[in-house]
Amino acid sequence: MIEIVNLSKRFIGADDEVHALRNVNITIPNGSIYGIIGMSGAGKSTLVRCINMLERPTEGTVLIDGVDVGALSEKDLRDMRKKVTMIFQSFNLLMQRTCLKNVCFPLELVGIKKSEAKKRAMELLEIVGLLDKANAYPAQLSGGQQQRVAIARALATDPKVLLCDEATSALDPKTTHSILELIQDINRTLGITCIVITHQMSVIERICSRVAILENGSVVEEGEVSDIFSHPKSAAARHLVFPDGDPEVLAIREGEHRIRVVFNGAIATERPLIAQLAKDKGIEASILGANTKSIGEKAYGNMLLGIMGGKEDMIIAKEYLESVEDVIVEEVFEDAQ
Description:
Number of strands: 14
Oligomer: single chain
Strand content: 25-35%
Order of helices and strands: EEEHEEHEHHHEHEHEEHHEHEEHE
Largest sheet: 6 strands, mixed
Structural class: alpha/beta
Number of helices: 11
Shape: elongated
Distance between the termini: 38 Å
């Protein structure tokens, strides 16, 4: 387990002091895929570099399986970094080395025999689907292939944790999808804890189980991905989940009652729920706005409905919609929108 406790990082410049991280507290379970998301400048990359002490925090503690990483000697810290490896947006491959030799490199650094290093590197290239590119150079590969080599190299020392710092940001959507599938497969088959740093909510929804949202160096929201997608509480979360904006802006009309329907993993996408409400109960609801999306076969997000038939009809509609599993309904008042 990785525990980040009261972590802060300040950079002191010639004229001012920049607070990159402010009192960050996160717990990451072993074997999970954990997302850390925020806009540019939120502190994401600083946070991930503090986990393996490439950046020393100004205050606070990073514990990995109960060990205070910041208190380790330089030798022990080097040993720790064999178990907490990292991949980057820019791949960081050695361009003068073949793919095979890139993967061998960290093994050679720790004194593994060349024959054993080569055998292990070939196994890893097979895992990432690039065994046929062993003797190719990075310049001969696509961006996605280069990232696969970088992943193979990161796995060479049998790590327990893989830090992915914007690992798909330089890739097209199709290649991004394949790399995320690879990370998910590595997590599932090897049991490696993966920490995914990104500014793309699509990456989080694709593979992460939990997510922390950073804004101005602080965690403004943290929890299960499905919970945050279905009902984001902070302004930063709402902006990331629904970048087109929240539709709840119109004033409530006289005689109108409003309800917010929250889809928290409901299998409701194939059922015309609002039309069925009108058919079964004779209650017509106006869809005033909707921010929903599907993750797998389940629906997440929320929908704002206007009902003009009076409070009794609103209560009937609320009870009807709540009868659907994983659908939450709440009345919306004008001052609470």
